[in-house]
Amino acid sequence: MATLRTVEFWPQTGFVDAPWTEDPDEDAFVRSARTIGELYSEGIRPGGVRARHPQLRLHCFPHEPGRGEVLVTVFTEPMDGFEMAGVTLPDGVAALSSTARAALVLDVMHAAALRMAEARGWDPAAFAAARAHVVAHDLRFRWTGTAKTAPGRRYTARPVGTITDDGLGRVVVEIRRVPDGTLVGTSAEIVTPGSERTFRQVARTLRWRDGGTVEINPGERWHSTTVEEPPALTVRAEGANSPESVPRISVIGGYSDDAVPETYSTALYLLTDELRGPQWTAWWSAAPDDVLEISYDLIAQGAAGVTARRGGNKLRIRLDRPLADILAATDRVALARADVEAVLATARRRAGLGPYPELPDPARVAAGTTERIEARDALIRRMHDLLDRLADRLPAALLASLRSELDDGRTGDVMSGLRSWLAHLGVPVTEAERAEFEALAATRQQPIDMTYTGTT
Questions:
Q1: How far apart (Å, rounded) are the C-alpha atoms in residues 258 and 202?
Q2: Whole-number pLDDT of residue 451
Q3: According to the model, what pLDDT value does residue 271 have?
Q4: 106 alpha-carbon distance from chain centroid
């Protein structure tokens, strides 16, 4: 007596670029049966079913047009080499989704196996376990080969084979780092016959050509995959006791709202952005603290002023400026410059430093502020014009939301949101509209030149 090892449909495989059988429903069915047969066979072997032959082979009878149900016929007469069952399919099997068709294959295969078990006196529990095995693997056969280690022992590579709904196999080579098993590379898919036996044959050819290149040969030629080297990674700590800390000035922003006049907020942004320059880092490098951290509250509830406190390796300075003061100022650019000067004077005093680099003169700050505001207004007008051109292709609610955000000056949010929605909705755009969109995106990122020279 033999042990039942295989339950599968025939033909077991076929050509990649041609039908396996003439009938479309049968062709789709036997292709889907490839992955189910491998899983079911894998699940039946632990049961140790003693049988006359090691294989239960199923095949499809000629199609009967107009049939509405599946008919399974089990042949109980002795056969040479295998047990056999036949299946007559209904119309429309090829039109089923891949998942529904795989589920149908499992039902048919399991029904045939149980009926044969009844005829042969086999234990049905083994077949229940085989069916559960298929379900547990979500009706998809996946095989993983043994990993091989590269010279130098930095990486391992292993073949992974999957049988897809077309009945064919797809093999990829996975490359992982040795210390932690992280997946760092995957080869292109290689099409093979869909069977575990084929996967094992292909896996035996896997070899490392050198410490970073692995090869595999499915039969027609060698396929190579080279590990991509990631960029170098440097990790540093920032803290009072950290030797890696470097002197720097960090402007982290603060509290504001739409009521803050644009001239003041723009001038404040341009002036504090200047503090990122190398001359300011050089000035601060003589301070006892590594980091000068600047924040502000432009809707402060108390009196205007500058406060400072130390923590860790930072000197934290905050500017408090009530909104009423900004609204009452006759020259808001000058007020912003005076506020930044007050912040720097406090930093200089608390850190015991010498004179700080010169800020841009008032005329330059005023010109830069005007230029930035005018550029943003022009940008908003152009973006409104673009939305008008796209209005007939965008949902009304989305259009209203984007226009509202533009009116609030949120050009960045509008550009990124519009880009995402155009792609998500599949909105057709003309070449002129696309060029305008990209030009607007580039314009939004252009800085205002506030270059100056000299120190005090």
A1: 65
A2: 41
A3: 93
A4: 34
Q: How do 2-3 and 50-51 pair as beta strands?
A: antiparallel
Q: Could you say which residues of the chain have pLDDT below 50?
A: 447-456
Q: What is the pLDDT of residue 423?
A: 85
96 three-state secondary structure = coil
pTM value surpassing 0.70: no
Residue found by looking up tokens 């969109």 in the block: 437
Asked if residue 369 lies in contact with residue 267, where contact means CB atoms within 8 angstroms, the answer is yes
Q: What is the pLDDT of residue 243?
A: 54
The two tokens of residue 433 are: 């509209």
Residue with tokens 């601060």: 284
Return the pLDDT at 57: 94
Question: pLDDT at position 258, please?
Answer: 80
CA angle (453, 369, 382) in 5-degree steps: 130
User: What are the structure tokens assigned to 58, written together?
Assistant: 């199923």
Distance from the first to the final alpha carbon of the chain: 101
Please report the DSSP string for 151-167 in residue order.
Answer: TTSSEEEEEEEEE-TTS
Note the Cα 67 to chain centre separation in Å.
46
DSSP code at position 393:
G
Cα separations (Å) of 368 from 221, 254, 265, 267? Answer: 64, 22, 12, 8
Task: Give the contacts of 101 (CB within 8 A, at least 6 positions apart).
Answer: 28, 29, 32, 93, 165
